[in-house]
Amino acid sequence: MRGGVLHRWLADFVASEAERVGAVVREEVVFRLPDGRATAIDVVIDSTQLSIPLEIETTPRTAASNMEKASRLFRELWILVPNQGVESAVSRVWSRSRHRPSITVLMTPDLLSQALRDRFPVFPAVNEGMET
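Structure (tokenized):
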């Protein structure tokens, strides 16, 4: 996976948390844009009934281009940021962007576990007894 140490740690964290709810994570998933160009999404979280693309933003530097490509491919995008400072900066980028998916969920790692349990309830036996 591209990115530095923090990006890799966050990707591993997503994989671990997704596994806890019975979902599977695919990294650097390549898609074709409508114009035929290939592009990659950092992570796609899959279950038998749901797929959610997730971009990891350790800085706001690539947020606008990631939102643009996601808006061409998906209705929903999750964006994982390492802290509230990056969250605020990415929120500003999102609010100014002409290209954004209709639903964008921006979260820090402490919110990811709950979001996964909320969106992937298809495995209730796995989710039972999990503590936050």
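Helices lie at 5-20, 63-73, 84-96, 109-119, 124-127. Confidence is low (pLDDT under 50) at residues 124-128.
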